[in-house]
Write a structure and sequence with these properties.
- With 576 residues, the protein is α/β, with parallel strands linked by helices.
- It folds into 2 domains: 312 residues, ABC transporter transmembrane region fold (Up-down Bundle), CATH 1.20.1560.10; 241 residues, P-loop containing nucleotide triphosphate hydrolases (Rossmann fold), CATH 3.40.50.300.
- The chain is 66% helix and 11% strand.
- The strands form 3 sheets. Strands 6-9-10-3-11-12 form a 6-stranded mixed β-sheet, sandwiched between helices. Strands 2-1-4-5 form a 4-stranded antiparallel β-sheet, with helices on one face. Strands 7-8 form a two-stranded antiparallel sheet.
- It is elongated, with a radius of gyration of 35 Å.
- It is a multi-pass membrane protein.
- Its main location: membrane.
- It is found in: Cell membrane.
Length: 576
């Protein structure tokens, strides 16, 4: 996996530490075996006095402590590597998602993205915390033990050398299957997460249309699919463990039998040598077996890493920003769209060659029938979607030559359904600013937005906690909270997407007054249907099927554009 290799190359110091701990562990294992063989040989065969053996016991205790420390330090290093890698993966995923256009962001289920960001990244942990430390140990420990056994008894070393390859052979055969099954599991988990989150978000709609039972069945099917994929991996894991145990047990048995023959029948071995080898052999095979278990987890992690890599590699429609800074003054710039085109999918709706200039402090309304491209044009203007053709210039410079943060400092985008984050009302108002703002400024913004009285009536005032998505707030209160953010931010460009749709007349009047106040020192571009809004702007852009059909004032379009006149007449008839 290129992503995993890249992460390993960035942690060379940790790899060197793991190799050092592996060498220390191998030395401790061999020393422990030699000391234990010396003690047993001395006490039971040579009948050496305990006083002479006691220093060896202290030495054995020290070696055991070194062995324990080596295992602990190796594990800690692996955990640190895993934590660093997961943090890096999540940062890269978040940066990639933040850099994606709005169109790309909405293409896939939110639950699937959350699954990759959380579950897939978490499952990369085993590769670094288990597989890599065990791989470093297996690189050194079996080789060092084999060299030591060769110096003591060649026959045993040859048996070890010929039986050891069976363990990595089974690891390779089983590991390939594990990687494939793991990829299937994460695909199932992504689908399950997406289905479950969609169902939660649309629960009321499902109940109203009597589709809750069908959706329940879909969730059940998705859950069973994930369960089956997980069980398939466990089957492979148990088969792998069984085969490794068989190989290890048979190999140790053959070596023990051969040593017994040499020791008892042929008397070609001393007890010390025979016992020393028998103490080392289990450590030799255990190192390989532990690698087999870790290898299974490592292959599963590779499946998870592949999902992360695929997500990072999907850079279609990603927006690349530049490094220029927009001047810090809150003076509205001149905005120019030149032959701007955008299309969601081939053979799908498209904005076609929109060309328009918007002067500083100008108030512009974008009008048209539903589906004519009003919100799409607003999203393109906001820099949330990059034009496929044409350019957007800000004071003569291409919009995407500027830094993303520099551009968004100068604009506010107020949608029909502004998002309210979990936290206090004060925090939600000041969320648009990176610098600390005073409570007086927050309260002033709330007064300007017409929500101060409502906040004061709450028990905790500006410290009142509102839920994720704005639970506990009405639609009008969410809109006013969003306007308060804009008053606090003081943007030079304000974008509105039908902010008063669905509100009662009193709330709409409050919002309209706040919007007029907010627009005094800014360029304002509004997607509008209400005749009141349209009549009071400087210029109107009329869209039809993604094309700019006409531009001008209300009076001009009433006389020059039959399409616009028909729209206004239809609205007047509804008001009657």
């Amino acid at each position: 996996m290129n992503l995993l290799k890249e992460s390993l190359s960035q942690q060379k110091k940790s790899i060197a530490l793991l190799l050092g701990f592996a060498f220390l562990l191998a030395t401790a294992m061999i020393s422990q075996g030699a000391i234990m063989a010396t003690i047993i040989d001395g006490v039971f065969l040579r009948e050496i006095a305990f006083a002479n053996i006691f220093p060896f016991l202290l030495l054995l205790l020290g070696v055991i402590l070194i062995r324990v420390y080596s295992i602990y330090a190796s594990g800690r290093t692996g955990i640190k590597m895993a934590a660093q890698t997961k943090q890096d993966f999540r940062e890269r995923l978040l940066q990639k998602m933040a850099g994606s256009s709005l169109h790309t962001s909405l293409e896939r289920q939110s639950g699937g993205k959350v699954s990759i960001l959380m579950d897939s990244v978490d499952n990369v942990d085993h590769y670094f915390s288990q597989y890599i430390p065990h791989l470093m140990r297996t690189t050194l420990i079996p080789v060092i033990i084999l060299i030591v056994v060769f110096t003591q008894h060649i026959n045993s070393a040859l048996i070890m050398m010929f039986t050891a390859p069976f363990i990595p052979l089974f690891m390779m055969l089983v590991g390939l299957q594990t990687k494939r099954k793991s990829e299937e599991q994460f695909t199932q988990l992504e689908a399950f997460s997406g289905t479950f989150l969609d169902s939660l978000q649309g629960l009321v709609t499902l109940k109203l249309f009597g589709r809750s039972k069908q959706q329940q069945n879909r969730i059940e099917e998705s859950s069973i699919g994930f369960k089956n994929a997980t069980m398939d991996i466990l089957k492979v894991a148990f088969t792998n463990s069984f085969m490794l145990e068989i190989v290890m047990m048979l190999s140790i048995g053959i070596i023990a039998l051969e040593i017994a023959l040499q020791l008892i029948i042929y008397e070609s071995l001393t007890f010390f040598t025979a016992f020393f080898i028998l103490l080392l052999v289990p450590d030799f095979y255990l190192s390989l077996r532990d690698l087999g278990t870790a290898f299974h987890n490592g292959r599963a992690s590779m499946g998870a890493a592949k999902k992360v890599e695929e997500e990072l590699a999907n850079t279609r429609n990603n927006i690349q920003w530049g490094d220029k800074q927009i001047p810090g003054e809150k003076i509205p710039p001149q905005i120019e769209l030149s032959h701007v085109s955008f299309q969601y999918q081939p053979e799908d709706f498209a904005l076609e060659k929109i060309s328009v200039k918007i002067s500083p402090y100008e108030h512009v309304a974008i009008v048209g029938k539903s589906g004519s491209g009003k919100t799409t044009l607003l999203n393109v203007l906001a820099g949330l979607m990059k034009p496929m053709q044409g350019t957007i210039t800000i004071d003569g410079h291409n919009l995407f030559e500027y830094q993303e943060q520099s551009w968004y400092k100068h604009i506010s985008y107020i949608t029909q359904h502004p998002y309210i984050f979990s936290g206090s009302i004060g925090e939600n108002i000041s969320i648009g600013l990176t610098d600390q703002v005073s409570s007086d400024e927050v309260m002033y913004a709330a007064r300007q937005a017409g929500i101060a009285e409502k906040i004061k009536s709450l028990h905790d005032g500006y410290e009142t906690i509102v839920g994720e998505g704005g639970r506990g707030l009405s639609g009008g209160e969410k809109q006013r909270l969003s306007l308060a953010r804009a008053f606090l931010k003081k943007p030079s460009i304000i974008l509105f997407d039908e902010p008063t749709v669905g509100l009662d007349l009193q709330t709409e009047d409050i919002l309209q007054a706040s919007i007029r106040e907010l627009g005094k020192n800014a360029t304002m571009i509004t997607v509008a249907h209400r005749l009141y809004t349209i009549q009071n702007v400087d210029r109107i852009l009329l869209l039809e099927n993604g094309k700019l059909m006409a531009t001008g004032s209300h009076e001009m379009l009433m006389t020059q554009s039959p399409l616009y006149a028909d729209m206004v007449d239809a609205q007047l008839r509804r008001l009657e």
